[in-house]
Amino acid sequence: MQSTLYTQYGFGGTIGYDLSDAVSLHAFGYYYAHNPLVGPAFSPYVSTTSYGGYADIRFSDRFGSNIGVRRYINPMSGQWTTSPIVTPYFRVGKRNKVEIGLPLGELLKAAVWGDRDNPMRFRPQPQPQQHPKKK
Fold first, then answer.
1. Considering the entire predicted model, what is its pTM?
2. What is the pLDDT of residues 63-117, one digit of tens each?
3. Nearest-angstrom CA–CA distance, 105 and 124
4. What are the b/e assignments for 100-131, b being 16+ CB within 10 Å?
5. How do strand 80-92 and strand 98-101 relate by DSSP bridges?
6. Backbone angles phi, psi at 26, to 5 degrees
7. What gap in Å lies between CA 35 and CA 38, rounded to an integer?
8. How far is Cα 28 from Cα 103, in angstroms, rounded to an integer?
């Protein structure tokens, strides 16, 4: 993967429904025909099969939060991984066109459940006892 050009094809979509002026529901899904295993340096740049949904809750015209769940194929392990979506945001500018969000889902997941889905997590292995040889 690091020394060749790689093309990835897929399709996907999203759908949303406004329950009220303050709450909307969204579902999404993306499918990629080939989900390669890559190292940690490439993993943020590789698209993988995923699906999920979230609720967009608007507390005011300038502040809100997206809350939901996402399931995806982890490009470093090749296994399905579940991740929470918790993204508070605020809107700035004229007519609130610019939205700035802070994705806290992975931080929340690590704080509550630990990093058990992280394939790069250090796992100490017990070493066999080495006894000095007697002369």
1. 0.75
2. 999 999 999 998 888 889 999 999 999 999 888 789 999 999 988 888 888 776 6
3. 27
4. eeeeebeeebeeeeeeebeeeeeeeeeeeeee
5. antiparallel
6. -135, 140
7. 9
8. 17
